[in-house]
Write a structure and sequence with these properties.
The complex is a heterodimer. Chain A is α/β, with parallel strands linked by helices. Chain A contains eleven helices and 26 strands. Chain A folds into two domains: 16-414, no CATH class; 415-468, no CATH class. In chain A, 24% of the residues lie in helices and 35% in strands. In chain A, the strands form three sheets. In chain A, strands 5, 6, 8, 9, 11, 12, 14, 15, 17, 18, 20, 21, 23 and 25 form a 14-stranded mixed beta sheet that branches. A ten-stranded mixed beta sheet of chain A has the order 4-3-7-10-13-16-19-22-24-26. In chain A, β3 and β4 form a beta hairpin. In chain A, α2 packs antiparallel against α8. By secondary structure, chain B is an alpha/beta fold. Helix content of chain B is 37%, strand content 30%. In chain B, β9 (166-170), α6 and β10 (197-201) form a beta-alpha-beta unit. In chain B, α3 packs parallel to α5 and α5 (148-162) runs parallel beside α6 (178-191). Chain B is globular. Classes of the chains: A alpha/beta, B alpha/beta. The interface between A and B is medium-sized, with 25 and 31 residues.
Amino acid sequence: MERKKTFIEDLDRGFYDIKNKDIYSYKADKGLTKEIILNISKEKNDPEWMRDFRLKSLEIYNNMELPTWGPSLDELDMDNIVTYVKPNTQMKGNWNEVPEDIKDTFEKLGIPKAERESLAGVGAQYDSEVVYHSIKEELVKQGIVYTDMETALREYEDIVKEYFMKLVPPNDHKFVALHGAVWSGGSFVYVPEGVDVEIPLQSYFRLNSPGAGQFEHTLIIVEKGARLHFIEGCSAPKYNVTNLHAGCVELYVKEGATLRYSTIENWSRNMLNLNTKRAVVEKNGTIEWVSGSFGSKISMLYPMSILKGEGAKAEFTGITFAGKGQHLDTGAKVVHAAPYTSSAINTKSISKSGGVAIYRGAVKITPNAHHTKASVSCESLMLDDISRSDTLPVLDILNDEVDIGHEAKIGRISDEAIFYLMSRGISEEEAKAMIVRGFAEPIAKELPLEYAVEMNNLINLELEGSIG
Amino acid sequence: MGDRLLDIKDIHVEADGTEILKGLNLSVNKGEVHVIMGPNGAGKSTLVNVIMGHPKYKITSGDIIFENEKINDLKTDERAKKGIFLSFQTPEEVPGITVEGLLRSSRTSITGKPIKLMAFRKELKEKLEILQFDESYASRYLNVGFSGGEKKKNEIIQMMMINPKLAILDETDSGLDVDAVKIVSKGVNKFKNENNAIVIITHNSKILEDLKPDFVHVILKGKVVKTGDASLIDEINNNGFAEFKEAALS
């Protein structure tokens, strides 16, 4: 039976690809020099210690090598990246005051609608600065702080100074050093002791400017016995020049506290996504990561949980979908640094049309961390013969009294399963999409609903017309 | 007997370069129950897979006619839409797709209309009861963690929900205990009427006690070598396939 094959070169990403005119009130020169850093710092009215921190980070950056493992970053030319683009607006607390074109972008991304329906607070960053932030009045009364990093730096300087880049220091790797030098925007959340934030907060990061970098910093502190769900979404329109995202997320989960951190990343496919995320969890605290990586050209993303206190827990649930021209190197790291700690890593990856999806992860159990439990499960599904998947889990166990489970599966979409579904009257295209959605289902059900729907749409889009 | 449903005319089929069916003929009318027997490797499963349109099997000559239409080149889903159903010998496990989810997709696809959910659920519940399945099976992932017997019963539920014109049961009874065979037979009997037909491939006569076949075909080396009535089953049970071997060579 002869069947026609149709291929789509690149996805129509719909509203994600709508480009606004590149309007800004200040744009740094391309590249990275001391002068540029000083200008950014001046433009942002940094306190002196922050300006010095930026300069020190730049020095570290200049003295550090690119990572010698993972995807090639040869195409990254820092001399061509604009590290700071200030949108032509101040941050607003009232949605109506946000400039039309920017407002329109976020409307299309569904942000204000989500705020009305299911969120306790919303932040929206456009290029380098946060343009909108709001939080429900009740939460403010409970002492919860949710604002942009710039405001936090002014109004909660002591807290920022105590925590900022202490968990992820600039000398950790080259791109956090870069981040330390040029960071701008991002969210600051402080949840006081015992407060349970029942509905999620969400920050959305949009990079509109071509050839620019986004370096937002997210700092979340959840005090003793408190609870929070934070959602982060990222997207950008596609340009032919390389854009860079090197954000940094620092999460402090105190004794008995719980933080769920959900991310859906759908950067355009000219983006290098070199993001660093880390959580430190105190006694009996819990960090839950939910991570969906769909966009970008290259991603290197390995959220890390440091289980510092007895009985601390980490859960990581992630899905990565690499299509044509994408190399997504993602995973998770856990350090068990105290007794009775437990962690579970659960990842799925899908690759098609030559995409590369690699799971890279590490679990380390220190000598004193007795009675710890760790499980790692990674599954990959390759949809054709030209795509690639691999799993690179590292287990470093320096203790005998541990309970470790590890499972890795790499497979192809089963022809027999497709035939089975087709024999029930379902088209080949839909059968494939059903199988892929079924594969992703355990992860999808962890995602916030609108993102789970978006993921299914994306899977359908990816599979449409590409079936042989 | 009713109208002609399926006509297989001198079909030659190969898989991976080896010819498996070598000029096979078979005709099925509405209202009939056909049984296909034959030793392992005779081509029974190839026959049912080729009727369903499995891409692995290639028709080199001959025709499959379903309701007066040649379906040689139709895709599997198009054949299903025309009313052909296959109960698989070893149904695939498909994680993440529930039994109900599959049946809903199937129904929407086949009818081209949205489902009336309440009525659909009621119907499904009835079928589950006939097969003595707990309702919770509807929300389980397709065949994942099902026992051999549960998988086969699940096939029959799908058959009853899809309600095809031609149901092909590929060793649906194998691996089932006596009670399970009874339950499956009950389901098949409920389904059977004068407007549809059933083709059963089996090694055992247990299931045939309840299903009353009209025709029994013996397949050997890719051909039907003998067609008879139900009495042929006893003959095979007593003497095996040895006496047909000569016919296969002719």
